[in-house]
Amino acid sequence: MQYEIIGQTVPAVEVTLDIGESMYTQSGGMIWQTAGIEMNTNARGGLKSLGRLFTGESIFMANYTAVMPGAKVAFGSTVPGSILPLDVSHGGWICQKGAFLCAEQSVQFHVTFTKKFSVGLFGGEGFILQQLSGMGVAFLEIDGDQVVRELAPGEVLIVDSGNVVAFAPSVRYEIQMVKGLGNKFFGGEGFFNTRLTGPGRVILQTQNFYDFAQRILRLMPSSG
Known about the structure:
With about 220 residues, the protein is mainly β. The protein has a single domain (about 1-220), classed as Double-stranded beta-helix (4-Layer Sandwich), CATH 3.60.160.10. The protein contains three helices and 19 strands. The protein has a six-stranded antiparallel sheet with strand order 5-6-3-10-13-8, with no helix packed on it.
């Protein structure tokens, strides 16, 4: 499998496949393909795929397989930002819901949860995570620009939950409540943040598209 990331504002990744090579994506991720690509859709992971319902995403995955050499298929991001290729062969990655774009068939993709159910539930975005493991390359969507931090053992980074893209399994992940009633209600940052504790690599994004969309909605005139 070879790939090229095309575009800068709302990029796509175009993958070139040999016969029998295959990529999968969530429904709607493909934006173009050449002749020689066959598609089939299934609930990847069997019963485990039902966990994706909790992420607000489809349980079905679309699979694109080359039936002739040099066939191409492209997968596009949904918002301005970038596409990040990640090799999961050396321990895997944990990523936020919505970050996954596509992957080789040898990459395993399933839902995982924070350890503290109650805190995660009220922490919204921090409750449900997606785990990538196995062998091969996966591609993630980055909203805005990408920031990579390498945390030392015990080093702590406090992040708005919507700005976390992915982190190594060695990083401890917790949802913590913002302190102080004034900060909660008037600070504009919500009630919860994500606490990441090293060691390990953390990938952040400079834009929280959910917050951006909420700001746009507030500016729209109300009906009536």
